[in-house]
Specification:
single chain, alpha+beta, Deoxyribonuclease I, Chain A, 2 domains, seven-stranded mixed β-sheet, six-stranded mixed β-sheet, elongated, endonuclease activity, transmembrane helix, metal-binding, nuclease, TDP2-like
Length: 367
């Protein structure tokens, strides 16, 4: 019996180590080459922790060679670990920014949660914007009301009252009906600074999906371009709002369907990223990309979209920086990527549960 337990233990350690090593290279393996690589990317932090625990346990049960081998494999995980965790000392976010700095807030507002402009969710989102006073606000899943309604320009009016006199919508043409109100979905950029230029970039041919937009502004008399988009959502829980089950129960019962959905959507992400990255690389002025990427930092999607840009949270944030509060506690899927001509001064993820995403806020200036 002891031999069987010993054999099972060694096999378990070897299998875990093999899975961990695959997850270490998740950022470099295309989902077209290995379709289930998104799962390895998602579970990397948990594999890393499990390898540490089992390696240490091996020392206690006198399996020092196996324990030492497992500890050595952790070095292969350092690149992914450094993208998952921001190893900066915790610091409070300074609401008062420098005059020479640009403050950007990016947020998937979940369609403002409700189409009723008098809802608590709408006012809560606007209050977060007001409290942080960014120069630029990028919103994904923005619902723009277009039919006759007593408050059909509610958001625009409220944002303008806070000083955001310039705005640009993607208006992706997907009309939906909420409580008798007709809306168009998409991304939006609100700015206190005037636009030099603006445009829309098609990243999907599906009329029900969102595309990318950009605006050019000036910071200290130098031009820069801001892109925002939301990559395709996994839509894992769209039909669960009326279920009384816990989100983790739903995940368990649907685990196989979720695995295949992760695989298929990551393939679509790879196509979207190729279009986005090509547009960014052909931009003649320094660029900033911010938005809901719907992929973790250890993914192929993140690696190729970020390219040689800085991740604002890794530069000045602290910890994991979770931006999506459902499913697992390590989902940082909303980012601000900047050209290296910018200096990141501070960055934070606001932990307000209004949308299903948390906003990411950063201050930057020219180097």
């Amino acid at each position: 019996m002891k031999k069987l337990i010993r054999f099972a233990w060694i096999c378990g350690c070897i299998i875990l180590t093999a899975v961990f090593l695959i997850s270490c290279f998740s950022a470099y393996i295309s989902p077209f080459s290995f379709s289930f690589i998104p799962l390895f990317a998602l579970w990397f932090p948990y594999c890393f922790l499990a390898v540490i625990i089992l390696a240490v346990t091996n020392f206690f049960v006198r399996r020092k060679k196996l324990g030492s081998f497992m500890l050595l494999t952790l070095f292969f995980g350092l690149p992914n670990l450094l993208k998952t965790v921001a190893f900066n000392a915790p610091a409070s976010f300074n609401i008062q920014k420098k005059d020479s700095s640009l403050r950007i807030l990016t947020w998937n507002v979940q369609g403002f949660v409700s189409s009723n402009p008098k809802s608590v969710k709408w006012s809560g989102i606007l209050q977060v914007v007001k409290n942080n006073n960014p120069d630029i606000v990028c919103m994904q899943e923005f619902l723009n009301i277009i039919t006759d309604y007593d408050s059909n320009t509610f958001i625009q009016d409220e944002m303008q009252a806070m000083g955001y006199n310039y705005h640009f919508f993607s208006n992706d043409g997907f009309f939906r009906l909420y409580n008798g109100v007709k809306v168009v979905d998409g991304c939006a950029i609100f700015s206190k600074k005037p636009f030099i230029d603006s445009g829309r970039v098609t990243i999907t041919t599906d009329p029900e999906k969102q595309n990318m937009i950009y605006t050019d502004i000036q910071l200290n008399n130098k031009p820069l371009r801001i892109f925002t988009a939301r990559l395709e959502s996994f839509r894992l829980y769209n039909d669960t709002s009326r279920l009384k089950q816990d989100i983790y129960e739903i995940t368990y019962h649907r685990k196989r369907a979720i695995q295949y959905k992760l695989r298929d959507i990551e393939k679509l992400h790879a196509k979207e990223v190729n279009i986005i990255r090509n547009k960014i690389d052909n931009t003649q002025i320094p660029a900033i990309y911010c938005g809901d990427v719907n992929s973790v930092p250890t993914s192929y999607t993140y690696h190729h979209l970020r390219g040689n840009f800085q991740d604002a949270f890794l530069e000045k944030g602290s910890g994991i920086g979770r931006t999506f509060y459902k499913i697992v506690p390590t989902l940082r899927i909303d980012y601000i990527f900047t050209d290296k001509q910018f200096k990141i001064e501070q960055c934070t993820v606001s932990g307000k549960k209004i949308s299903d995403h948390y906003p990411v806020i950063t201050d930057l200036q020219w180097k």
